[in-house]
What we know:
Layout: H1 8-16, E1 21-25, E2 31-35, H2 39-48, H3 62-65, H4 69-80, H5 85-94, E3 99-101, H6 112-115, E4 120-121, E5 128-129
Amino acid sequence: REAGPLALNAQRDATLLKAAYGAFRCRDGRHVSVAALEDHFWQRLCAALDMGDFGADAFRHHKARKPVAAAINQRIAQQLQGMDSSAAFALLQKHDVPAAPVVAPAEVAALAQFAQREKFESGASMPLARYPVPMAGVRPGARGPAPALDSARGS
């Protein structure tokens, strides 16, 4: 058995690179994240996208996909770059592939699952997220100047 990459950067790259895992750019410039690591998700991804030779039985198991992860991700990128992100996400969702649209930080506050929690307030360039856990005696959104040094000690 070989030792694998010896340089730290090579070890990091080898560890972080995973087949069918990452954010992929679509035709409209937006990205869709895909996380089809497990074999059953991989099979669903192959049903959704034309994975070429990677759709063969030889790549059915994760162990076979790991050495060619970069090529597999390149194939996914090629397939998704021809679709708008909404169409790509809908297709992956239809096949029950773990995927999600990548949302810019400035867009998060407008999403229903975040807006309903009322945890954002206006900021200069983007919404600011408040502490997400409700606490007794703390009014959400109430901000003021920081207390003076030693003001809590008393005189």
